[in-house]
Amino acid sequence: MSFAAANKRLLKEYKALLRESPEGIVAGPVDESNLFEWECLIQGPDETPFEGGVFPATLSFPKDYPLNPPKMKFTCEMFHPNVYKDGTVCISILHSPGDDPNQYEDASERWSPIQSVEKILISVMSMLAEPNDESGANIDASKVWRDNKEEYSRRVRQCARKVLGL
Amino acid sequence: MSSHTSPSSDSTAGLGLPQVAACLLVGYFVFRWFFKTTDPSSSAAQRPSPVDSRRLQQQVDVIRGMFPQISAGAVQAELIRNGGSIEITTEKILTNGFLPEPPAPVTPAPVPPPAQVAAARPSVPTQRRVAPPATSSASGSNTILSQYSDLITRYNLHNRLQEGDASAVAGPGGKGKAPATKSDRQLAHHSKRDDMILAARRRIQEMDRVAAGQS
After folding, report:
1. Is the Cα torsion angle B33, B38, B43, B45 positive or negative in sign?
2. B135 C-beta neighbours (distance < 10 Å), count
3. Model confidence over A15-72: pLDDT tens digits?
4. Interface pTM (ipTM) of the complex?
5. Å from B148 to nearest chain A CA?
6. According to the model, what pLDDT value does residue A120 have?
7. How far is A4 from chain B (nearest CA, A)?
8. Cα A81 from chain centroid?
9. Basic and acidic residues composition bias: which ranges (chain B) (predicted)?
10. What predicted TM-score, i.e. pTM, was given to this entire model?
11. Which residues have CB under 8 Å from A138's CB, separation 6+?
């Protein structure tokens, strides 16, 4: 029952994104026979070290989507305080309202069924521009970002070029 | 007389009938037990039952709730290895600080349907994973990152690298109606994706040229 609902909702979101997607975002199922695994691309926001880059990620949806949020994982090298070294994104919109691992998030910031793939990707995009120093997922990156902005920019730009094969 | 014969006939009937009934009952349960145990085990050998994989997924979620930095694959492999004990898995993560990654490389581009992954994992020999390459997971980044291929290779865009800016303009834009069929949608999605990658690459190259010109 919820599986069918999830399928329907995901197809709807996919079609909406194909029809009109926000600037700098591309997302869709890897293969439409399985709507629960998506690939997406996020463009690096301008005026940040990520500028010009395009960062691929996967979204894995739970069978009870949209009751619970998908998991997002970058499939490229990332150097960002809120992205774990394995690529998993740590951002409040991807936390279900029930669990609050860091005990500081507002319920309104967290996942709810009125959110969407589009909103997740926009949130992640702004997270790239403005890391959240309260939830460090990559301690290395957090330190460098806090203490040495120049080195942080250099590392980020390096990642951006690597993804594009430059 | 009748008082003498009736107890004897009663006693033979009383001894015989319950015994036969008990035998039948025991026989019936043994029979059922055999079928009950052999049936699910033979089907479970072929594929993990949905209940099991759901339970495994729940356990993975519990562990990942505590240790989000450990990948789901590693947690699942560990749970399969230790017979689904959350305690052992937690203990292992706390003492080592990590879990060895399962040997199957996680290639992100063609993600197989989850059912296949679940079916494939248990068949992977578990022995090899017991000895973790301690350095690889501790230093983390190097091993994980090296397995990513760049987007040009991943989506096979080498033959489109020489295209000019025109292709980005000519390509189907983000607006309009969504294609009606599955294959058209896939095509539209792929062309959007590829155009975005190529445009970004051109932009960085352009930025490089500007930077080179200034210096």
Report:
1. positive
2. 10
3. 999 998 899 999 999 999 999 999 999 999 999 999 999 999 999 999 999 999 999 9
4. 0.90
5. 6
6. 95
7. 16
8. 13
9. 182-195
10. 0.60
11. A78, A79, A80, A81, A82, A83, A84, A85
Position B111 scores a pLDDT of 44
d(C-alpha B166, C-alpha B40), whole Å: 61
What is the strand order of the sheet A25-31 is part of?
A25-31, A34-43, A54-60, A71-74
| Among A22-36, A89-103, B39-53, B109-123, the least confident range | B109-123
A37: nearest CA in chain B?
B111
Q: Which of A26, A73, A90 sits opposite B192 (nearest CB)?
A: A26
Q: Is the pLDDT of residue B132 over 70?
A: no
* Whether the predicted pLDDT of B136 surpasses 90: no
- Domains defined for chain A, CATH in brackets: 3-164 (3.10.110.10)
Residues of chain B contacting residue A166, judged by C-beta atoms under 8 Å apart: 201, 204-205
Contact B97/A at CB under 8 A: no
Q: What φ, ψ does residue A83 adopt, rounded to 5°?
A: -120, 120
* Chain A neighbors of B201, CB-CB under 8 A: 164-166
* Contact: B197, A54; criterion CB under 8 Å: yes
User: Could you give the CA distance from residue A58 to residue B130 in angstroms, rounded to a whole number?
Assistant: 28
pLDDT, greater one: B126 or A149: A149
